Amino acid sequence: MLGKDQPINLNLLELPFGLKALTGVAAELDDCAFPLLKNITCTSDAAVAFKDADVAMLIGAMPRGPGMDRSDLIQANGPIFQAQGQAINDHAKKTVQVVVVGNPANTNCMIANHWAPDVPATQFTALTKLDHNRSLAQLVAKIGGGVEDYKNFAIWGNHSDTMYPDTTNCTFNGKAVTKLCSSTWVNDWFTPKVQTRGGEIIALRGQSSAASAGNAAMDHIREWNDGTTNWTSMAVVSNGEYGVPKGLVFSFPVTTKNGSWKIVKGLKFTEDGKAALKATISELLSEQAAVSHLLE
């Protein structure tokens, strides 16, 4: 609450709710006194928002609430990402790095990419770093150590409960994770825990993930630009790798360097892994069909 001697800008209070809330976020950012933050523009004009953008984090989507399923999100959010893709195409730099956070992230990213034909498809990505981080946290809780001790872990597929958190190649301080925990634990506890963690967060706090999603988005763009020798997980536009249909936005294990990413090649799958890959591809194809009218 403001004290009687603290002035209120009445013009700000009369703003539409969305811009008023956005201005409040900007005020908090100012109050953080970040040394690299020089100025903030609050706008609802896409031409202004995306003008010469180097990075675009697309978080503007209706979040999933209790009782909602993915089809609800697809129908509500698809048109938003059509408009954002068009704005990126018309106003952002062609080298813009796009990170789609708003769910269903993979399919929203596919829509945005479709409507930005002048921007290379390699510049469009969706966030699965959150799932990657969630997975590492569960491995630490089971095996021990710190997240930095785990190498070659990967999230495959859709950011949904069909994603495949793959421990096949993962190591802990050089030791195979598959030797440190049972396949029963991986299949019956770890995998469903990671797949449904988003729903668990909603059940606990009544809203979608916030701090962890924001942290993962920062991790994503930082790794994309600063590079990593360890694998990370990133949903990118498929060019047919590992049999994933071309054009789907699919999470792969990647390495990054100098603002570019590269899918890790030559990996083998267990029978369980093959089945998981098939299931998540099938889901993404069904989502693609549901938004086919936005891909014409």
Order of helices and strands: HHHEHEHEHEEEEEHHHHEEEH
What CATH calls the topology of the largest domain is L-2-Hydroxyisocaproate Dehydrogenase, Chain A, domain 2
Distance between the termini: 50 Å
In percent, how much strand structure appears in the residues? 15-25%
Oligomer: single chain
> For the residues shown, what is the average pLDDT?
92
CATH class of the largest domain: Alpha Beta
User: What strand order characterises the main sheet?
Assistant: 1-2-3-9-10-11
Q: How many helix segments?
A: 11
Low-confidence stretches: 1-8
Provide the gyration radius in Å: 20 Å
The largest pleated sheet is described as:
6 strands, mixed
Helical residues, percent: 40-55%
CATH superfamily of the largest domain: Lactate dehydrogenase/glycoside hydrolase, family 4, C-terminal
* Level-2 CATH architecture of the largest domain: Alpha-Beta Complex
Short structural description:
With 296 residues, the protein is α+β, with helices and mostly antiparallel strands. It has 11 helices and 11 strands. Strands 1-2-3-9-10-11 form a 6-stranded mixed beta sheet, sandwiched between helices. Strands 4-7-8 form a 3-stranded antiparallel beta sheet. It has a two-stranded antiparallel ribbon with strand order 5-6.
Describe this structure in words.
This protein has 296 residues and is α+β, with helices and mostly antiparallel strands. It folds into two domains: 1-44; 52-296, Lactate dehydrogenase/glycoside hydrolase, family 4, C-terminal (L-2-Hydroxyisocaproate Dehydrogenase, Chain A, domain 2, Alpha-Beta Complex). Helices cover 45% and strands 16% of the residues. The chain contains eleven helices and eleven strands. It has a six-stranded mixed beta sheet with strand order 1-2-3-9-10-11, sandwiched between helices. A three-stranded antiparallel beta sheet has the order 4-7-8. A two-stranded antiparallel sheet has the order 5-6. Helix 4 runs parallel beside helix 5 and helix 6 (129-143) crosses helix 8. The longest helix is centred in the N-terminal third of the chain and has 22 residues, at 70-91. It is globular, with a radius of gyration of 20 Å.
